[in-house]
Amino acid sequence: MNILVCISNVPDTTSKINFKEENTAFESQGVQFIINPNDEFGLTRAVWFQQKVGAKVTVVTVGDVSCEPILRKCLAIGADQALRVDLQPQDGFEVAAQLAAVCKKESYDLIITGRESIDYNGGMVGGMLATLLDMPYVANCIQMDIASDEVSVQREIDGGKESLSAALPLIIGAQKGLVEEKDLIIPNMRGIMQARQKPLEVLPPEAAAPASKVQVFEKPAEKGPVKLVDAEDIDGLIDLLENEAKVL
Questions:
Q1: What is the domain extent for residue 66?
Q2: 154 found inside a domain
Q3: What is the Cα–Cα distance from 126 to 7, expressed in whole angstroms?
Q4: Model confidence pLDDT, tens digit, residues 86-128
Q5: CB-neighbour burial class of residue 151 (10 A; exposed 0-12, middle 13-18, buried 19+)
Q6: Does the residue 248 lie in any domain?
Q7: What is 34-47 written as a DSSP string?
Q8: What's the domain count of the chain?
Q9: In 3D, which of 131, 106, 21, 126 has the Cα closest to residue 56?
Q10: What is the value of pTM for the model shown?
Q11: Domain for residue 232, yes or no?
Q12: Which of 114, 179, 166 is nearest to 140 (CA)?
């Protein structure tokens, strides 16, 4: 089985986010980057298939050289090889187009993307990749088992869960539940040393223009001061909710 796991390089949620160039570009200086959590759930599941059925696991990202530490961590977790498309993408479509070009050069039985990245929360790359490759796609995947070429999957839907079956090749959008946080693999020293010997190939980008353009970034408005109301002052609370908060 040949598995491709798509990896996003995203800011740690504890990082302070700022913008530059008149709020049209993200300021990456001083920001700690991590593997997108939804992608890491997918990678962990792929490594499980590697250990169980001998699957080959390749990780791929679209980004500049700053993404390589994240790819090395993926190799330390257990991926067999890494690919980096040397491009700073402008939108989700450009990412999907570059990933599709990679997938057309080699046959993959299973392609795993994250449900969404935690930076822009677009949730669009998996679906667009499936469209470009004319392959079935299961989003919000929380369970997956493979027997021969038959895949049993379960995905999260509004108000519940949905069980589906599909044939390989298949694209899934991984999220928490596909594995749990306690099952994530923390690279040990042996894995880190082995990662240095595993191949990390840099690929030139294909010609593909972005489909959208950032006009401006805007931070949420700062929260106003808090007003404390005595627990016995019900009339005062109602007055504030009605006349200031405007929720009554």
A1: 2-216
A2: yes
A3: 12
A4: 999 999 999 999 999 999 999 999 999 999 999 888 899 999 9
A5: buried
A6: no
A7: EE-HHHHHHHHHHH
A8: 1
A9: 106
A10: 0.87
A11: no
A12: 114
Q: How many whole angstroms separate alpha carbon 12 and alpha carbon 236?
A: 41
Q: How far is CA 40 from the centre of its chain?
A: 8
- Write out the E strands in 99-248: 110-114, 137-147, 150-157, 160-167, 170-174, 200-203
In whole angstroms, what is the distance from residue 125 CA to residue 203 CA? 19
CATH number reported for the structural domain that contains residue 145 in this entry: 3.40.50.620
User: DSSP label at 33?
Assistant: E
pLDDT at 222: 83
How do residues 183-236 score in pLDDT, each as one tens digit? 999 999 999 999 999 999 999 999 988 999 889 998 888 887 888 889 899 998
Distance of alpha carbon 4 from the chain centroid? 13
Paired tokens of 71? 């790819």
Strands (DSSP E) along 28-183, which ranges?
Answer: 33-35, 56-63, 81-86, 110-114, 137-147, 150-157, 160-167, 170-174
Report yes or no on 19 lying in a domain.
yes
